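Lecture notes, part 5. Sequence design as translation. It can be helpful to think of inverse folding as translation between two languages: the language of shapes and the language of residues. The source text, in C-alpha cells, appears below.
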C-alpha cells in the first residue's frame, strides 16, 4: 500500500459523540479530527446543535460539522460497522476487554479494510450506559493520571485520532493483514442486533430465562459474542440454532 492509500482508510473510521452537552466540545472534537485527517463525525442526540459555539470552536473544521450526521440513537450511529469501541474514563467491572488507545487501534486494524469501524465517546459527565457498551466490541481507556483522570472530550478524540493516523502512516494495516487474514466477512452492528433479538426470542420460547432477569442474561451473552468478533457465517449458524429452538426453518 502507498501512504496515500493508507490514509484513505481513515475514511472508514466514524467518530461518534453521544448526547454531548456542550456544543463547544463538538466543535473542538471536529478540529481534533481534521488535524489527524479523519472526517466522519456522528452525533447522537446532541443537547445543543447546530450551534455557533460549535462553529467557533472548530477553527477551520467547519466542513466536518457541515457533513456531520445527527441520529436518534447509538444503533443508528454504528449501523453497518464491523467493529465498535466504546470509550470510558473509568475502569469498569464488565465483561468487555479494556484496551489502551494504541492497543485498541492495533486490534481494530484487521477490520479497517472490511468496512466502517466506530469509536464511541460518551457523555461528558456520565460516559456511556451499560446498554450502549453492549453495542461495543471493546472498551477503550486512556490511562491518565489517577489523581486527575477526567479528560476533556476533544482531548480524548485527539488522542485516538492521532493513534489511527500514526498507525496508517507506519503501514501497520498492511503488516497486520500480513500476519493474519480473515477469510469470512465480519457481521456488522445491525446484523448483530438482529441476532440478539432472535436469540432473545428463542430463549424466551424455550423458557430458558425462567425466574432470571432476561436483561442481565442477554447483557452477558452480548459481551460473549462481542468479544468473539462474529463473522457473517458464524452469525448464520447461531440464527439457524435459534430457529431450530423455535421449531422454525432456518432464516435465509
Amino acid at each position: 500500500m502507498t501512504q496515500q492509500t493508507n490514509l484513505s482508510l481513515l475514511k472508514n473510521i466514524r467518530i461518534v459523540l453521544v448526547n454531548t452537552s456542550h456544543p463547544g466540545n463538538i466543535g473542538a472534537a471536529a478540529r481534533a479530527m481534521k488535524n489527524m485527517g479523519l472526517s466522519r463525525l456522528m452525533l447522537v442526540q446532541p443537547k445543543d446543535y447546530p450551534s455557533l459555539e460549535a462553529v467557533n470552536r472548530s477553527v477551520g473544521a467547519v466542513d466536518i460539522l457541515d457533513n456531520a450526521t445527527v441520529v436518534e440513537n447509538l444503533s443508528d450511529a454504528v449501523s453497518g460497522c464491523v467493529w465498535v469501541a466504546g470509550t470510558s474514563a473509568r475502569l469498569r467491572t464488565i465483561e468487555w476487554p479494556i484496551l489502551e488507545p494504541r492497543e485498541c487501534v492495533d486490534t481494530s486494524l484487521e477490520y479497517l479494510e472490511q468496512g466502517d469501524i466506530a469509536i464511541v465517546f460518551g457523555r461528558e459527565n456520565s460516559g456511556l450506559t451499560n446498554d450502549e457498551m453492549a453495542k461495543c466490541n471493546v472498551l477503550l481507556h486512556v490511562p491518565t493520571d489517577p489523581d486527575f483522570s477526567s479528560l476533556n472530550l476533544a482531548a480524548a478524540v485527539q488522542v485516538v485520532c492521532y493513534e489511527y493516523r500514526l498507525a496508517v502512516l507506519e503501514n501497520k494495516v498492511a503488516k497486520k493483514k500480513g500476519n493474519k487474514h480473515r477469510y469470512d466477512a465480519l457481521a456488522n452492528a445491525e446484523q448483530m442486533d438482529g441476532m440478539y433479538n432472535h436469540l432473545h426470542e428463542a430463549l424466551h420460547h424455550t423458557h430458558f430465562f425462567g425466574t432470571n432477569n432476561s436483561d442481565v442474561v442477554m447483557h452477558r451473552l452480548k459481551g460473549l459474542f462481542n468479544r468473539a468478533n462474529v463473522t457473517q457465517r458464524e452469525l448464520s449458524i447461531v440464527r439457524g440454532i435459534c430457529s431450530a429452538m423455535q421449531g422454525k426453518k432456518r432464516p435465509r
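The translated text above is only one of many valid answers, since several sequences can fold into similar shapes. The chain has two domains: 3-179, 189-245.
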